[in-house]
Please model this.
Amino acid sequence: MEVLDVILNILSSGLPCALLALGIFLTYRLLDFADLTAEGSFLIGAATSAVLIFNGVNPWIATLASIIAGACCGLITGCLNRYLKIPKLLSGIITMTASASIAMIIMGAQSGNLNIFASQVSFTNITYQGDKQTIYSLLFPWQNIDGEWLVVNPWGDVIKVAVMFGVVLLAMGIIYFFFGTEYGMAIRATGMNEKMAKSQGINVDIATIVCVSIANALIGLAGSLYVQDTKTVSTASATGYLVVGLASILIGEAIFGKRSFKNWLISVALGSVVYYVIITLATRFGFPTELKSLLYALLITFALCLPLIKEGFKKLFKLRKRGA
Model:
């Protein structure tokens, strides 16, 4: 059962980050837009979902609200870049910086005294109290024994991972379908060659804003899945997740390839799972937690160098084959 617990732990961390990686992928790879909004939209999505569930809102509605909140972050970034002509990097930095304060306002508003400096909302036990549940707990029965809500279904973690997998699969299907449509192809054309896309009559400003909004909607959804799993959110919750998303993309592309758009999407999603496999193994083998940032940096460096390493092995294999 310990092996099963480790696998479930990896999947429960990796699947929400698959959405994060897919969101970054849409801007970074398809649109050639270096968007740093990711950590901001992740935090806004998590805070929105947490506060709504804390106040007894249906978790599916809270999840939808997180998607909309993430999309709004992307909309702001896109408008800053396309209409105010602020560089892409700076547009993302502005939105990401502002999102920390906005998240504090969102989380402070739930306390009843409008304390906008409240930096943390914890609803660790909320899912055990009647209608205040997550999208995961809606699927398993609860039983009230001496005033405490207990899980009746021993497969709760399996169901949670299954729900996450279903949400990720649905999101990937929608992305694959949308970017295969005429307008989706127009967005991809904008990323490949903006001048050519403009000459074909494509409104590149709107296409850019739509793509950035969709990307950050996915990241907001990732934040919602994350907070409903951990049951706590703070202004520091999203720190480092931009790096996680980038590392997942690079690892997925290096290991699984990008032969077609469908294969590319699957590679990015699997890359996030592989990333957490590496992190989990490193932790279990005694890698110091205070050096995690160093591990993240090494993983990204390795992922960037992996194509060169693979090419080197191919050349070495060819030389040995000739020598034989």
